[in-house]
UniProtKB/TrEMBL annotation:
Family: Belongs to the metallo-dependent hydrolases superfamily. Hydantoinase/dihydropyrimidinase family.
Enzyme Commission (EC) number: 3.5.2.2
Gene Ontology CC terms, in alphabetical order: cytosol
Residues with N6-carboxylysine modification: K192
Gene Ontology MF terms: dihydropyrimidinase activity; metal ion binding
Domain of life: Eukaryota
NCBIfam families noted in UniProt: D-hydantoinase (TIGR02033)
EC main group: hydrolase
Naturally occurring in which organism (per UniProt): Dillenia turbinata
Protein name: dihydropyrimidinase
Keyword Signal: yes
Length: 497
C-alpha cells in the first residue's frame, strides 16, 4: 500500500479497536538492538509462507512475496530461490503495519522534554507492529519554520516512516504565510489548536477562527485539543485552595464538562466556517456525544480516542504512592470508569473513527516535578508499545489496510495464540514506568517488516538511527469533498446584492 492510500485507509477507520481488559491484553518482548546495516539486516527479498493474509473484507491463506520494499505477489505456494529469506507464518495473521496518528517524541513541554526521542520511540513502535506515526511539531516562539527545522533535526535519528502535524500557538501574518509554506512545500496537512494549557500552548476563539479559515483555504485539516483552558485554570485554583495538591487534583480540576464544552464550541465554530474538524484524544462521554450529534447532522467531524482513554480509568490517580499516581496524569484526564467503555462502543459503531496512542512519556524524575503541586506534573502517558496489539483486536482484524501486490511492504505477522505480560522492564521505551504494567495480553506481533526489511523478529530489533523516511502528506483529503458546493449554496441563500 502506498502512503497516501495508507493514510486514507487510516482515516477510514482502520486501526480500531480492542476490548482491552485485564485478561485479553498483549505482548511481551525483551529489548535489544542489533544490526547496523540499514533498515534491518535481512535481505530485501522475503517470502512470508502460509499465513492468513488479512485484508479489509477478506482473508485467505496465502504466501506473500516481498522484493525491494514492495509486495510483489500474494498467492498460494509461491516458489523462490535460495537468495530469499523465508518466514513461516503458519497459523498466524499477516497484516499491514499500523499507523499511529498521534505521538509526541522529543517534545519540549511543561519545562522538560519527553524522554522517548525519534529513535527510541520509533524502535518501541516497530516492536509493537506500528510502521508509521505522525508526530506534532511544536512551533518555536510561535514560528512554524523554526519549529519545522527543530523537528527536522530531532528526526535525523528516525528509524521508521513518520509524518508531521503542526501546532499553531499564536497568530499574525507571518504565521498565516508560514502555514501556506508548510502545506505547499513541507508536506504538512493538519494543524492542531490547543484550547487548553493556558499560558503556554493555549489559543483563544479569535485565533481558532483565523486558524480554521486558513486551514480551509489550504485544504488542511484543523485539529483541536478540546478543553476549556480558562475554566481549567479556575478549576485548578479551586482545587489547590481546598488543599488538594496530589495527582487526583488533576482529574478534579478539569472534569468532563470542560472537555464537552470545548468540543461543542470547536465543532460549532468549524460548522460556522464550514471546514472539517478532527478532535484529538477524545476522553469523555461528554465530548463523544458532541461528536456523535455533529456527525449525525452531516458535519465532517473525526473523533480520535486514545488507548489510555479506552482502557484505563481515573482510580489510579488516587493511589497514595505519588510515583504510581503521577504516571497517569495526562490531558484531558483519564476519566471515571464508564467513559472508556462508552468510547469503545462509539468506536465500534463508527461514531469515533481511529485510535491514537498520544505517546508522550516522562520518567519518574520528570513526573516528580509536581510532587507538591499536581499542576506541575508533566502531562502524558506511554502507549506506543505494544501499540498495534493495544489498538487492534484479533476479532477486528478485518478492519485494517491491505496486503496487495504493488503496496509498500509494511507488514506484521501476529500470533493470536501467544500471551504475555506488559511491563516497563520490556517495553522498549526509555521511560521507567508503564501505565499498563502487569496486564496480560494475547496476540503478539512476532515479526515487523518495514520498508521491505525485517526490523523485528525473535524479540530483537534490527534498526539503525537515521534510516527513517519523512512522509509528506497532501492537502485536500476526502473530508474536503463537497465543501465548495456547500459554500456556494450558502452564499446564494444570502441573496447579497
Ligand atoms: O497529556 C497529554 N495529552 N500530553 C501530550 C500533549 C497533548 O495535549 O496531546
Ligand atoms: Zn492535546
Ligand atoms: Zn497528544
Amino acid at each position: 500500500m502506498d502512503h497516501s492510500s495508507q493514510l486514507f485507509a487510516l482515516f477510514l477507520l482502520l486501526l480500531p479497536f480492542t476490548q482491552l481488559s485485564e485478561s485479553n491484553q498483549y505482548c511481551e518482548a525483551p529489548s535489544g538492538y542489533v544490526g547496523e546495516i540499514g533498515y534491518g539486516v535481512s535481505g530485501s527479498k522475503i517470502l512470508i509462507k502460509g499465513g492468513t493474509v488479512v485484508n479489509a473484507h477478506h482473508q485467505e491463506i496465502a504466501d506473500v512475496y516481498v522484493e525491494d520494499g514492495i509486495i510483489a505477489a500474494v498467492q498460494p505456494n509461491i516458489k523462490v530461490g535460495d537468495d530469499v529469506t523465508v518466514v513461516d507464518a503458519t497459523g498466524k495473521f499477516v497484516m499491514p503495519g499500523g499507523i499511529d496518528p498521534h505521538t509526541h517524541l522529543a517534545m519540549e513541554f511543561m519545562g522538560t522534554e519527553t524522554i522517548d526521542d525519534f529513535f527510541s520511540g520509533q524502535a518501541a513502535a516497530l516492536a509493537g507492529g506500528t510502521t508509521m506515526h505522525i508526530d506534532f511539531v511544536i512551533p518555536v516562539g510561535g514560528s512554524l519554520s523554526a519549529g519545522f527545522e527543530a523537528y527536522e533535526k530531532k528526526a535525523k535519528i528516525a528509524c521508521m516512516d513518520y509524518g508531521f502535524h503542526m501546532a499553531i500557538t499564536k497568530w499574525d501574518e507571518v504565521v498565516s504565510r508560514e502555514m501556506e509554506i508548510m502545506v505547499k512545500e513541507k508536506g504538512i496537512n493538519s494543524f492542531k489548536f490547543f484550547m487548553a494549557y493556558k499560558g503556554s500552548l493555549m489559543i483563544n476563539d479569535d485565533l481558532l477562527l483565523e486558524g480554521f479559515k486558513k486551514c480551509k483555504s489550504l485544504g488542511a485539516l484543523a485539529m483541536v485539543h478540546a478543553e476549556n483552558g480558562d475554566a481549567v485554570f479556575e478549576g485548578q485554583k479551586r482545587i489547590i485552595e481546598l488543599g488538594i495538591t496530589g495527582p487526583e487534583g488533576h482529574a478534579l480540576s478539569r472534569p468532563p464538562v470542560l472537555e464537552g464544552e470545548a468540543t461543542a464550541r470547536a465543532i460549532r465554530l468549524a460548522d460556522f466556517m464550514n471546514t472539517p474538524l478532527y478532535v484529538v484524544h477524545v476522553m469523555s462521554i461528554d465530548a463523544m456525544e458532541e461528536i456523535a450529534r455533529a456527525r449525525k447532522s452531516g458535519q465532517k467531524v473525526v473523533g480520535e480516542p486514545v488507548v489510555s482513554g479506552l482502557v484505563l480509568d481515573e482510580s489510579a490517580l488516587w493511589n497514595p504512592d505519588f510515583n504510581i499516581a503521577s504516571r497517569y496524569v495526562m490531558s484531558p484526564p483519564i476519566r471515571a470508569a464508564g467513559h472508556g467503555k462508552a468510547l469503545q462502543a462509539a468506536l465500534s459503531t463508527g461514531v469515533l473513527q481511529l485510535v491514537g496512542t498520544d505517546h508522550c512519556v516522562f520518567n519518574s524524575t520528570q513526573k516528580a516535578f509536581g510532587i507538591n503541586d499536581f499542576r506541575k506534573i508533566p502531562n502524558g502517558v506511554n502507549g506506543v508499545w505494544p501499540n498495534i496489539s493495544h489498538r487492534l483486536c484479533p476479532i477486528d482484524k478485518h478492519r485494517v489496510g491491505a496486503i496487495l501486490v504493488g503496496s509498500d511492504a509494511d507488514i506484521i505477522i501476529l500470533n493470536p495464540n501467544s500471551s504475555f505480560e506488559i511491563s516497563a522492564s520490556s517495553h522498549h521505551s526509555r521511560t521507567d514506568t508503564n501505565v499498563y504494567e502487569g496486564r496480560r495480553g494475547k496476540g503478539k506481533v512476532e515479526v515487523t517488516i518495514a520498508g521491505g526489511k525485517i526490523v523485528w523478529q525473535n524479540d530483537e530489533l534490527k534498526v539503525t538511527p537515521g534510516i527513517g523516511r519523512y512522509v509528506e502528506m497532501p492537502p485536500f483529503n476526502y473530508l474536503f469533498s463537497g465543501i465548495d458546493k456547500a459554500d456556494a449554496k450558502h452564499l446564494s441563500s444570502l441573496r447579497a446584492p
